[in-house]
């Protein structure tokens, strides 16, 4: 099984029902990049990377495609057997840019799974469950309206809600946390996500003004250093999300004891293979975490779910997928969908999803003979 051709596509994913609003950015449409690796024995493996606009992280769609252009020619003719060897080949072509390499890593695992006749979750160490919890993100919005959506989503079966705050008056953020708690109480676990948008002072005020409400406080401030200063000064558990830009950042946060859990994004961490390392580091310290990505279609969704299935369920904070916010699916027959707040783990070999032939139009770039 050798790589014969690599096709690169872009897919526009408009946000359903308007704008997706976070402290750091408003998003109306996403530019997703898909990698299709075709082998000499007729298999096709897929990978995807979809930065949530150019300002959420130091990642962007054009950057992903430029990185892919550096890497792809060097992979033609490579055997799909050792994921570690393929990772080394990518590193020999380009330093860094893990979010672009992540798309290749997904496609390699998809191919290897198809060849061996096993789902990707098996290649990641083995599934512990056949169904993983999802969680719902409540975008930055007015308190009463947000509380109503929260109640509806709990009724729909979501076991966890994430309340987005920041980028506005503290008063409104405090009100939204109280209103959501009044609406759902203990029926759902709560995360309050500042998406890096708060000062340390604002985070401390919000913590104190919402003292009795059990939530985890996700990435309130911009840097890991700012968040480190919250240790011992806030009473809510603090999770890191955007600050975990690579494996080393996770190791640093764990060893410094400044994170009580994490929101992990598969492409940001450099792909599924790298995610297994941070998953195992978290297991050593009993740290909960999610298995998400910032955005993306069915390929990324499947990748997140395969990984989530390998995490000890009591520490699994859920898999966030963009399905609630985008129209349609890449794979009509086997879409990755949320039902009653949970997602079935694909059981077919590889990632278990295949984009409909021709749906992305002509490749934006092609590599190979
Ligand atoms: Mg987050």
TrEMBL record:
GO function terms (MF aspect): metal ion binding; racemase and epimerase activity, acting on amino acids and derivatives
Superkingdom: Bacteria
Domain Mandelate racemase/muconate lactonizing enzyme C-terminal intervals: 143-237
Cofactor(s) recorded in Swiss-Prot or TrEMBL: Mg(2+)
InterPro entries reported in the protein's UniProt record: 4R-hPro_betaine_2-epimerase, Enolase-like_C_sf, Enolase-like_N, Enolase_C-like, Mandelate_racemase_C, Mandelate_racemase_N_dom
Keywords noted in UniProt: Isomerase, Magnesium, Metal-binding
One Pfam short name: MR_MLE_N
GO biological process: amino-acid betaine catabolic process; peptide metabolic process
Homology family: Belongs to the mandelate racemase/muconate lactonizing enzyme family.
Protein name per Swiss-Prot or TrEMBL: Mandelate racemase
Organism lineage: Bacteria, Pseudomonadati, Pseudomonadota, Alphaproteobacteria, Hyphomicrobiales
């Amino acid at each position: 099984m050798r790589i014969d051709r690599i096709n690169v596509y872009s897919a526009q994913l408009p946000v359903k029902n308007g704008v997706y609003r976070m402290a750091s950015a408003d998003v109306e449409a996403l530019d997703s990049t898909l990698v299709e690796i075709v082998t000499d024995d007729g298999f096709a493996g897929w990978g995807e990377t979809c930065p949530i606009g150019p300002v959420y992280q130091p990642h962007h769609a054009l950057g992903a495609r430029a990185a892919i252009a550096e890497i792809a020619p060097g992979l033609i003719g490579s055997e799909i057997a050792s994921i570690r060897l393929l990772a080394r080949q990518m590193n020999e072509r380009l330093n860094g840019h893990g979010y672009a390499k992540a798309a290749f890593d997904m496609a390699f695992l998809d191919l290897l799974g198809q060849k061996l006749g096993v789902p990707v979750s098996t290649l990641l160490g083995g599934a512990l469950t056949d169904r993983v919890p999802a969680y719902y993100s409540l975008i930055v919005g007015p308190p009463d309206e947000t509380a109503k959506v929260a109640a509806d989503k709990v009724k729909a079966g979501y076991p966890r809600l994430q309340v987005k705050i920041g980028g506005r008056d503290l008063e409104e953020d405090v009100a939204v946390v109280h209103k959501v708690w009044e609406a759902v109480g203990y029926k759902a676990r709560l995360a309050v996500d500042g998406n890096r948008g708060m000062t340390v002072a604002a985070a401390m005020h919000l913590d104190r003004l919402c003292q009795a409400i059990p939530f985890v406080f996700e990435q309130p401030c911009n840097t890991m250093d700012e968040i480190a200063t919250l240790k011992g000064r806030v009473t809510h558990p603090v999770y890191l999300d955007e600050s975990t830009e690579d494996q080393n950042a996770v190791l640093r946060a764990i060893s410094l004891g400044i994170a009580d859990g994490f929101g992990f994004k598969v492409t940001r961490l450099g792909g599924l293979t790298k995610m297994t390392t941070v998953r195992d580091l978290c297991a050593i310290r009993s740290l909960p975490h999610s298995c998400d990505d910032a955005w993306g279609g069915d390929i990324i969704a499947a990748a997140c779910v395969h990984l989530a299935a390998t995490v000890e369920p009591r520490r699994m904070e859920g898999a966030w997928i963009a399905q609630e916010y985008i129209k349609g699916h890449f794979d009509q027959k086997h879409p990755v969908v949320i039902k009653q707040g949970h997602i079935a783990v694909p059981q077919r070999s590889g990632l278990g999803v295949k984009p409909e032939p021709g749906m992305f139009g002509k490749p934006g770039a092609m590599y190979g003979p």
